[in-house]
Amino acid sequence: xxxxxxxxxxxxxxxxxxxxxxxxxxxxxxxxxxxxxxxxxxxxxxxxxxxxxxxxxxxxxxxxxxxxxxxxxxxxxxxxxxxxxxxxxxxxxxxxxxxxxxxxxxxxxxxxxxxxxxxxxxxxxxxxxxxxxxxxxxxxxxxxxxxxxxxxxxxxxxxxxxxxxxxxxxxxxxxxxxxxxxxxxxxxxxxxxxxxxxxxxxxxxxxxxxxxxxxxxxxxxxxxxxxxxxxxxxxxxxxxxxxxxxxxxxxxxxxxxxxxxxxxxxxxxxxxxxxxxxxxxxxxxxxxxxxxxxxxxxxxxxxxxxxxxxxxxxxxxxxxxxxxxxxxxxxxxxxxxxxxxxxxxxxxxxxxxxxxxxxxxxxxxxxxxxxxxxxxxxxxxxxxxxxxxxxxxxxxxxxxxxxxxxxxxxxxxxxxxxxxxxxxxxxxxxxxxxxxxxxxxxxxxxxxxxxxxxxxxxxxxxxxxxxxxxxxxxxxxxxxxxxxxxxxxxxxxxxxxxxxxxxxxxxxxxxxxxxxxxxxxxxxxxxxxxxxxxxxxxxxxxxxxxxxxxxxxxxxxxxxxxxxxxxxxxxxxxxxxxxxxxxxxxxxxxxxxxxxxxxxxxxxxxxxxxxxxxxxxxxxxxxxxxxxxxxxxxxxxxxxxxxxxxxxxxxxxxxxxxxxxxxxxxxxxxxxxxxxxxxxxxxxxxxxxxxxxxxxxxxxxxxxxxxxxxxxxxxxxxxxxxxxxxxxxxxxxxxxxxxxxxxxxxxxxxxxxxxxxxxxxxxxxxxxxxxxxxxxxxxxxxxxxxxxxxxxxxxxxxxxxxxxxxxxxxxxxxxxxxxxxxxxxxxxxxxxxxxxxxxxxxxxxxxxxxxxxxxxxxxxxxxxxxxxxxxxxxxxxxxxxxxxxxxxxxxxxxxxxxxxxxxxxxxxxxxxxxxxxxxxxxxxxxxxxxxxxxxxxxxxxxxxxxxxxxxxxxxxxxxxxxxxxxxxxxxxxxxxxxxxxxxxxxxxxxxxxxxxxxxxxxxxxxxxxxxxxxxxxxxxxxxxxxxxxxxxxxxxxxxxxxxxxxxxxxxxxxxxxxxxxxxxxxxxxxxxxxxxxxxxxxxxxxxxxxxxxxxxxxxxxxxxxxxxxxxxxxxxxxxxxxxxxxxxxxxxx
Length: 1133
Known about the structure:
With 1133 residues, this protein is of the alpha+beta class. The chain is 41% helix and 19% strand.
């Protein structure tokens, strides 16, 4: 078998000998870059260096793989021992090259060099001098090639494929606690903790160091248990969908192949398997070669409706699992039932195994989630660097201070290094996740599940909400309103009662047969549209032998027949031509690309077969003979779709009497779906869900733009948009269409919608009341002819109709390129691409996790998006608040320590413990307990931590903290009874007035700032609803006040404070007067947050100072421009 020249999903381009870029063929962008390295003298020097410095460089390099690669020398990929793989998000991974011995396969050497990256195997191809995926080693198969080999693989072929592809397993490793502990401990955070603890032990802060050690151990154990539980949960999810032995055909020297039983783990692509009659979990992705299958794919798509899979048809086109998904059974899905002929089995060929399957993609998306590029995380790193800069400044001051005092070298080193442990809080990363964890828990309680928690913060910045229509904005079910038959190129009167139509008419028979319904456990099930149409006919359906696993040896596997009262009307034998039973010979399932479905059926009373087709009226029109179409076809279609009806067109054609059952199984679809006779229209109503209009209104009030991306008719979509409030009654809609001329394509706008006055209208696309609607065909032509016009179109379009699944994903991607934060809500079936591409993709599904989207909602309506946005804003604001609080907590302690150093004093062990463990921890944890408000506000929360409008209030708070500490010290120095600590002391004096003043004032500051950053509205509930925080803050305030005013002797000794004595009234009054400082600080801190932070006047002042002339977001700049649309040829009003 030759090597593949085309590529499945990946296009690999080698830039240089040592670098190779792997391109995604579908998205035309770099997926990841491979760089080759090998060990050299640098590696030896690095090892010696690490040994001499007790492994510290190793810890640093382990945290930064790009730095780790510096110990190797760059080399050609063909000689590389180590590979640095950098994905398109900039995440680096170092991977060891491996060697495997494989049976000789044409161009492959015996020893093959390969590497595994995120459970995908890449093999070095020496002739092409590049790495290729294992799927590329063997030629891609056409449909005919897949159908040809009915004998399975022989042993040698199987062995080669097994060596290349490996075992068919999706393995989620459950690491031992020891391994997890080593990985947990060997990072910079724990190295910093160890450094801090050693420093405190040297400084004789024994109790504090021991408490931190115990807390670190407790935190590590908790983290290990949580990590292990998550791995076990995912492992159990994967294992739960495993099956037992599988029957496989093996080619043997005998004439007939052997059917053997093997473990699912031993399956390889190319294997021919025998599907059991019922209740089978697919172990891999297979393509159906014979028979039919009914499967439940809810684990992948979120759709709980059983899906009928049909056998693959012949053809010369290349097989693609996505294009031919109606013939593909995916790993992990539940096969409910198979239908097979006489003595024959139902065969399927394995096409993908292991992590290459769709189920493997789900697991990989959980194991390796797409990193969320929220500015907050990048800004937090900048701020930590800022804190480290402050720490360096403080260290320099300490160095100067202690050297000038001729202090011991040990004291100089300890005091200087201690500043770093104070300014850069080790608990900062953990504290920042508190808001997300609380939000995730609240979402789970209301039935919204998330496999990527960092995306919850992204929900807080959503700027545009995209929705599918059917099943999302509207109900899944369709109500048949009436049918409109056609005769002699004219539409007849609408019919609401099917019993008034002739049972023998082709129109009735088309409605009864053209569907993909099936019976499961005696219950008729299938697509809601098919169910509605079939119920309207009142016919009955039987699947012969359904109780015996649907075994059939007749020409018609499924039979439909009219109701008994219709048959009883036929009394005269000469009229007994009515087809009492019609057998459905073959189905061509609905295709979102073709926008139609077809069946071949035969009545036992007729000598020929009939093909019936139903689908989108625009598509059916092109398949019908022109002489069978009514003259007012387009007018009638526009009339009903503009009123919001779902319109389905129906057609048929008689097949030749020589057309046999075998011909029906082999005929190509395009042969059937041409030269049809038009029968009529089905007029269906797809009512809005009750929650849709209120949610759209809520989003509009919150200044969140809403758009619809649907596969339905454009006029139906516009009508639904008016009904749900996406378009208002006084809005004008202009439908963009493209001419049929592929050489000189013209683009035209035609006014439509509710507000269609007779006078001409001046189109103003800068107005919010003018919208564009575009269909998938026009979208493709515009992208091809005028790609530069796409951004202009996107910022003004509200309706995207007749869009195929890949086009939906394109819209989402292009919106993101315009700096929109995009949410997408869909039912998970045809929206998978768009849901995965969106920043916030929500699949309406009863499952807790699906491959469709990072969020899965059991709330089966779009109200889930409001809940997500509320929680996202709440989590984002909480993350900001906790970060600012933790930063200020560090700086408050930094000021306290520097002033105390200056006064020959320090904080005591219990004082540090009280601040770090009781005050800070309790407040930081309870800040995040505030839930979201009930309503969305029009303003979005800030996204940048280092923006001037956030930094200025923060700097003011920092300044206030420093000034109040200095003010308290100044007040102390003014007391006549105060005696400062002498300059000639050899050891720092903890029990002192300096210590008492700064300790108590700083404790108040921690509580004040936590309260200030716990403000509620508009993004969180009011502070009073956070009972735990209020209780903690009040309790701590009372306790600190007691420590300041009148602590008992034992408590004063424990906390190393100066006790109050009854005979020292002047000193007692000084303690009381000290309460002025926290009172004033509270007023000033609240004022800064209330009148400066997040205020529009501050934002305008900053913009004025920066002379900001245009918005930073692309879509805002486009909206400000005068849209002239030079590519537009005609505007019709």
